[in-house]
Amino acid sequence: MRLSDLRAPEGARHRRMRVGRGHGSGKVKTSGRGQKGQKARTGSSIPAYFEGGQMRLARRLPILRGFDNPFRKEFATVNVEDLENWEGDGEINPQSLAEQHFIRRKEANGLVKILGNGELTRKLTVRAHKFSASARQKIEAAGGQVIEIPMKTTVKTKRGKQPAEANA
């Protein structure tokens, strides 16, 4: 048996139906499309998710499609137990975390949050955008220092965009 000997089983393959090619073809006038209607017209293709104008399922149930919040802030997370393995005594910041492979390089340009899973015995100075309450407590209990990097915030109200003296 060779690869070239393989054939489709009998009846599995059919010749293509040539529609609209005269009475002998068996598919004349409407060419198997039935009478009138959207699907009888040329250029008609209805997507599988289309439900006749009814609100489609993907929009009725956002949980299936997911919801993408444009204002979501993605944080790269590092646990306190990971900082126990830190090499050196310098200040820990997002760039140095990326250099020692605690986070990915592209995450170093984003936001970093320190979480409190595990124990810390070393005195470290940690600079990050956010700290969980337990992480802050464990770093300070070990004699270390917590420095929060200020995050860029946007004013969401028209009133907030006016100068301070105009609000008073």
Overall pLDDT score: 87
Looking at the structure, the CATH topology of one domain is Ribosomal Protein L15, Chain: K, domain 2
Coarse morphology: elongated
* Strand content range: 5-15%
Compute the separation of the termini in Å. Answer: 90 Å
Describe the structure.
- The protein has helices spanning 57-60, 62-65, 80-83, 94-99, 133-141, 158-161, 164-167; strands at 75-79, 111-115, 125-128, 130-131, 145-148.
- It has a domain at 75-148: Ribosomal Protein L15, Chain: K, domain 2.
- With 168 residues, it is of the alpha/beta class.
- The model has no long low-confidence stretch (mean pLDDT 87).
Summarize the structure.
By secondary structure, the protein is an alpha/beta fold.
Keywords:
168 residues; alpha/beta; Ribosomal Protein L15, Chain: K, domain 2; two-stranded parallel ribbon; 5 strands; 21% helix; elongated
Question: Layout of SSEs?
Answer:
Blueprint: H1 57-60, H2 62-65, E1 75-79, H3 80-83, H4 94-99, E2 111-115, E3 125-128, E4 130-131, H5 133-141, E5 145-148, H6 158-161, H7 164-167
Parallel strand pairs: 1-2, 2-4, 3-5
